[in-house]
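Researcher: For the annotation table, I need structure tokens for nicotinate-nucleotide diphosphorylase (carboxylating). Please keep the output clean. Sequence:
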Amino acid sequence: MPNLSLADLSSEIEANVRRALAEDIGSGDITAQLIPAERLASARVITREAAVVCGTAWVDAVFRQLDPRVAVHWQVQDGDKVSADQTLFRLEGPARALLSGERSALNFLQTLSAVATRCRHYADLVEGTQVKLLDTRKTLPGLRLAQKYAVTCGGCHNHRIGLYDAFLIKENHIAACGGIAQAINTAHQIAPGKPVEVEVESLEELREALEAGADIVMLDELSLEDMREAVRLTAGRAKLEASGGINDSTLRVIAETGVDYISLGTLTKDVKAVDLSMRLAL
């Protein structure tokens, strides 16, 4: 699947931010009302740890929706590597808006930067190989597109976005359809032209999938020896994706088997938010 870009996400970003502000501010930020409405302020946001930045457009949207008088001055851009104590951006505008938007803005930035940082770590582990690291649907509800964009900022790639844009025929689908060939043939009839991927657990199932015309075959927890044999047997007739039980210590050797893709749920589901801090000056 093609990678998401910011151009694909304009309406999504605005919707994400509207929901976040409604959730946080609700009927009004009563604490911010302690500050005179005319009071102006400035602020800077720093990272307390090394990271890969992602989420600048969401931060911009937070302050744009709160008060268009707020100016956001970025010193980094999405995809940049930053070090601890580095300033990411500065703010100028009404103090109330700066404080009301702080948490929502930092929530987006710390979460999406965490995904980008994790992805850069894994991308670096397979540097020099031909494999593409793919994300999965293991994302935060409501933030799938945002997280998948963050994946690309970290140097990894997007798999299917949802259940609608490609077939992924797994063990339970195969059982319900009566076999691999039956499932693949039915998929081709239902939606001609949509990519058809099927999960296999053995080389024999791989042969069935290839004969039935699968576009991509997911090798589920096959041994390294079987993965190498799968690459030989496939000989370019379909793309091969390794999945299941993959970690830092096994990623590189799996990439070197010659598979086309490795999918990793951990790119989006096991991330730890980047530690950010906003410092206000009146």
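Researcher: And a one-line annotation?
Model: The first strand starts at residue 40 and ends at 47.
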